[in-house]
Amino acid sequence: MNVIIIEDEKPAARRLKRMLEDLNIEVHTMLHSVQESIEWFSTNEHPDLIFLDIQLSDGLSFEIFDAITIKSSIIFTTAYDEYALKAFKLNSIDYLLKPIDDEDLEIAVNKYKEQLPEKQQLQVDFEDIKKLLINPMDRSYKKRFTARVGQHLKIFSVEDIECFYSENKGTYLHTTDNRNYLIDTTLESLEEELNPQQFFRTSRKFYININAIKDIISYTNSRLQIKLNHFNEQDIIVARERVKDFKEWLE
């Protein structure tokens, strides 16, 4: 297996090299910047696998892909928080969170080996990932939503919305004055529009506002039931696989 490491912190690169050697994987090359990587890929045969740091000394490593068509599989290494890492989960890209753990590294390598002989293809929109990697505090989210009521458009501040939910192929918002309004969007689209510090997707059917939570109750099969201040038309259940993330969101 032909492997290279792209990492601007040389001690971290050397540590990862030693960890890979412990797995009987030889690292042939270590690169430390966007520019150095572009020059190297321009004149060398591309490796089977790249361990690639996201933030390099001279920019984001995605800039390498703007200049060169990479033909290798990639495992990203990153110190970004869990919110940013959803970018990689959504795009089915493997990643390792720094400081890299021996067991996590071995799992990632074995996952790569299991995919052979098929080569991963980088058919990923890195622009979308870059947007998701922006610090959530620096991002701009929707502050208002509109709904058509007869011949009129009604405007709602996010502060006045308890939850968004889907029903009968429609998406609705529920307000603090206990009313429902059909809106022209989907829950999937809301993922990019709602501040993740204020809204959480409890299941495929609901996004809830943290300021609207009245009670949290243990529910069957390790799930949680959420009671909001006014909404009581349906049970709001936190899916079991989202309970851990939900508890972290509350803090």
CATH topology of the largest domain: Rossmann fold
The value of Rg in angstroms is 22 Å
The largest sheet is: 5 strands, parallel
CATH superfamily caption of the largest domain: Response regulator
Q: Mean pLDDT across all residues, rounded?
A: 85
Domain HTH LytTR-type: 145-251
Keywords: Phosphoprotein
GO molecular function: DNA binding; phosphorelay response regulator activity
Pfam family, one: Response_reg
In short:
It comes from Aquimarina algiphila. The protein contains eight helices and 17 strands. By secondary structure, it is of the alpha/beta class.
Output the keywords:
single chain, 251 residues, alpha/beta, Rossmann fold, OB fold (Dihydrolipoamide Acetyltransferase, E2P), 5-stranded parallel beta sheet, 5-stranded antiparallel beta sheet, 8 helices, 31% strand, elongated
Account of the protein in words:
With 251 residues, the chain is an alpha/beta fold. The chain has helices at residues 10-22, 34-43, 62-67, 82-90, 102-115, 126-133, 187-193, 243-250; strands at residues 3-6, 27-31, 49-53, 55-56, 59-60, 73-78, 94-97, 144-149, 152-157, 161-167, 170-175, 180-183, 199-201, 206-209, 213-218, 224-228, 236-238. Strand 10 and strand 11 form a beta hairpin. The two termini are 43 Å apart.
What topology does this entry show?
Elements: E1 3-6, H1 10-22, E2 27-31, H2 34-43, E3 49-53, E4 55-56, E5 59-60, H3 62-67, E6 73-78, H4 82-90, E7 94-97, H5 102-115, H6 126-133, E8 144-149, E9 152-157, E10 161-167, E11 170-175, E12 180-183, H7 187-193, E13 199-201, E14 206-209, E15 213-218, E16 224-228, E17 236-238, H8 243-250
Parallel strand pairs: 1-2, 1-3, 3-6, 6-7
Antiparallel strand pairs: 4-5, 8-9, 10-11, 10-14, 11-12, 13-14, 15-16, 16-17
